[in-house]
Write a structure and sequence with these properties.
Elements lengths: L1 H19 L17 E3 L71 E4 L10 H4 L3 H6 L5 H4 L8 E3 L3 E5 L2 E3 L2 E7 L4 E12 L6 E7 L7 E4 L8 E3 L2 E6 L3 E7 L3 E12 L3 H12 L4 E4 L2 E5 L2 E2 L5 E5 L3 E5 L8 H6 L14 E4 L2 E7 L2 E3 L11 E4 L2 E6 L2 E3 L6 E4 L2 E6 L2 E3 L8 E4 L2 E6 L2 E4 L4 E5 L8 E7 L2 E4 L5 E7 L3 E14 L11 E7 L4 E17 L1 E4 L9 E16 L1 E4 L7 E11 L2 E2 L9 E3 L3 E5 L1
Parallel strand pairs: 7-13, 14-17, 15-18, 16-19, 17-20, 18-21, 19-22, 20-23, 21-24, 22-25, 23-26, 24-27, 25-28, 26-29, 27-30, 28-31, 29-32, 30-33, 31-34, 32-35, 33-35, 34-36, 35-37, 36-38, 37-39, 38-40, 39-41, 40-43, 41-44
Antiparallel strand pairs: 1-2, 2-7, 3-6, 4-5, 4-8, 6-7, 8-11, 9-12, 10-11, 12-13, 41-42
Length: 615
């Protein structure tokens, strides 16, 4: 009898383990928060001057004009500001257990994925909102205060162009406004976000087009190795790794792009509990799925977390009508750490700070220059991860005088002039990884604003990032170089399109372009970068302003670069006295031809104070 009972118990245990693999409540993956349909299935049989904030009215896409004197962000009491130091991770808690982290005796969970969905009461079709597609696109056309104005409601819509199915299950496709430089017009960039519960999988993606006919397609970056198939108005592809996959159609169509973000699933509730237990519930501000109308947020203390759950949509409240430079100057908020009004999220002189989750911040209602997006100053141990920012009316993310910064899996969409993507200023030990930006100014940039002798920028790495730009520059050192910049790396990244050509001494794809200041630039590497299409200068190293003198730019390496470029690249030391540029090309291929010493003049122009070595 005892032996029979033991056998019965063993059989019941096996049944329980098997039921846990099929997405039942005891499946670890089932506890991950998502406001969407979470599907469990077998794998198919067979991815400028920011402080002035005025820009140049009437010139579409032109970055802020450099001022006559270096601009310095509003400075705190530096006696309490943390000093740059070796990264200190002692306060960071360990990550919550992965859904796959189980003992050898417990089978891995069945593969499952979930799609991030926005609140249906805020994100609708254009027809449901009573807006014509023509009027919606017109919002992104033109410059100055009219062409960059805010509009009521969310800037996110249900995509008019795509119906998406992934492994036989419907996934919502959204869209938001972006900008095409060549036509000076708006475009709707469509996208979806899904989370997978393990690292090995196979997803069958099918896009059904509406309003246009796809004849051929490409998935970028090409290094992802995905080849789509187009047949009967449907485009399909198989994706087997996490990443950011952008589908482009008909060889040059920038109006109908679709990006699929495939990310690893996170147990949001477990992660939140862990931070609450370690730091206290009062130091973890959680935004649940749904719409949240917010003026602005200020980080109040050390060890603080803002957590945006998947499906949380934070819509910035419009408070000031800013229709002119005079309006911009007159509407002020006391205590702002940067600019005339508080950034949407601001932090100054704190440590161990997080803004994380898979929620979205939508600033579409704000007028031009009404607020910056996320600005951190004099802060160390910073993590910004997973969030999406839409239509910032000023810089999207700025780190000034910060150390030990990690920005990962952040997406930026926008069209407004000066809506820079990821700006790293006067900061040290910064990592920007797995990020995407299609916005209205420089995208992945390093610079040095004003500051004391210690306000240098050093040890910054951008890795596995994707840029698409219709107004300015994609990757590089741009604008203000008031202090020295060194040890900067841009690697394993891609430019999909860049078609701004309004001043080809000032903009480009991969750039080092000081416009003001007296700092030197040393040891900058661009490596393993693909450029699908740049209608201007794919590579541009130029001292732009004649006021910049005695500027040394050296130790610059372009390695393993493949690009399609509409113009010659450029090395130009400028008209200021004493400037010097030293650049190395290592395996650089332009328009299908590798650049050599013998043919370099066919691909690049340089002046007498610029040297180039090629290998």
């Amino acid at each position: 009898m005892k032996k029979a009972l033991a056998c019965l118990l063993a059989a019941l245990l096996v049944c329980c383990c098997l039921s846990g693999c099929n997405g039942k409540p005891d499946d670890p993956s089932a506890s991950a928060s998502s406001p969407v349909d979470s599907a469990s299935s077998a794998e198919p049989g067979g991815p400028e001057d920011p402080s002035s904030g005025t820009g140049t009215p009437g010139v579409p896409g032109e970055p802020d004009s450099p001022s006559d004197t270096p601009q310095t962000p509003n400075s705190p009491d530096t006696s309490s500001a943390p000093n740059p130091s070796v990264p200190d991770n002692s306060s960071n808690p360990p990550s919550p257990s992965s859904p796959e982290a189980s003992s050898p005796s417990v089978p891995a969970p069945a593969f499952a994925f979930s799609a991030v969905t926005y609140p249906a009461d805020a994100v609708k079709t254009l027809a449901d909102r009573g807006i014509s597609q023509t009027d919606f696109l017109r919002r992104a056309s033109g410059g100055s205060y009219t062409g960059n104005a805010g509009y009521s409601g969310s800037g996110i819509i249900l995509s008019p162009y795509f119906t998406v199915s992934i492994s036989g299950r419907a996934v919502p496709a959204y869209g938001t406004l972006t900008f095409i430089g060549s036509s000076q017009s708006g475009a709707i960039h469509s996208y979806s976000m899904i989370n997978v519960n393990r690292d090995t999988f196979s997803l069958s993606v099918e896009l059904t087009a509406s309003g246009f006919t796809p004849a051929k397609a490409v998935v970028l970056p090409a290094s992802l190795g995905v080849t789509p198939r187009v047949q009967g108005g449907k485009t399909s592809a198989t994706i087997t790794t996490c990443g950011t996959y952008t589908f482009l159609f008909n060889d040059g169509d920038q109006e109908h792009a679709y990006t699929l973000f495939v990310r690893r699933q996170t147990d949001e509730d477990a992660e939140i509990r862990q931070y609450q237990q370690q730091y206290g519930a009062s130091k973890v501000k959680v935004f649940e799925p749904g719409v949240h109308y917010v003026d602005n947020l200020s980080i109040p203390s050390d060890d603080y977390t803002i957590y945006l759950k998947a499906g949380a949509l934070l819509i910035a409240n419009h408070k000031y009508d800013i229709d002119s430079d005079a309006d911009n100057s007159s509407h002020r908020e006391s205590g702002s750490i940067f600019g005339n009004r508080h950034p949407f999220i601001s932090c100054q002189s704190k440590k161990n700070i997080r803004v994380i989750g898979q929620g979205t911040i939508d600033l579409s209602q704000l007028d031009w220059h009404e607020r910056n997006g996320i600005v951190f100053m004099y802060t160390r141990q910073v993590t910004i991860s997973g969030i999406t920012l839409v239509n910032c009316p000023e810089w999207s993310l700025l780190q000034y005088r910060c150390t030990n910064v990690n920005i990962d899996q952040v997406a930026v969409f926008g069209y407004k002039t000066n809506s820079d993507g990821f700006a790293i200023a006067n900061s040290q030990t910064v990592r920007v990884t797995n990020c995407f930006a299609r916005s209205g100014d420089d995208l992945f940039e390093v610079k040095t604003l004003g500051g004391d002798a210690q306000a240098i920028c050093k040890d910054v790495i951008f890795d596995n990032c994707i840029a698409w730009n219709g107004k300015a520059r994609c990757f590089g050192i741009t604008g203000e170089v008031n202090k020295d910049i060194s040890d900067i790396t841009f690697r394993n990244s891609a430019i999909l399109y860049r078609d701004a050509t309004w001043d080809n001494d000032r903009i480009g794809g991969l750039v080092i372009i000081p416009e003001q200041g007296g700092g030197n630039i040393r040891n900058v590497t661009f490596e393993n970068i693909e450029i699908y299409r740049d209608t201007g200068r794919a590579i541009n190293v130029t001292v732009y302003s004649p006021a910049v003198t005695n500027c040394t730019i050296e130790g610059v390496v372009f390695r393993n670069i493949t690009c399609s470029s509409g113009m010659l690249s450029q090395l130009k030391s400028g008209s200021g006295s004493g400037n010097r540029i030293a650049v190395s090309f290592q395996n650089v291929t332009v328009n299908g031809t590798r650049v050599t010493t013998a043919n370099s003049s066919s691909f690049l122009t340089k002046d007498a104070n610029s040297s180039l070595t090629i290998s």
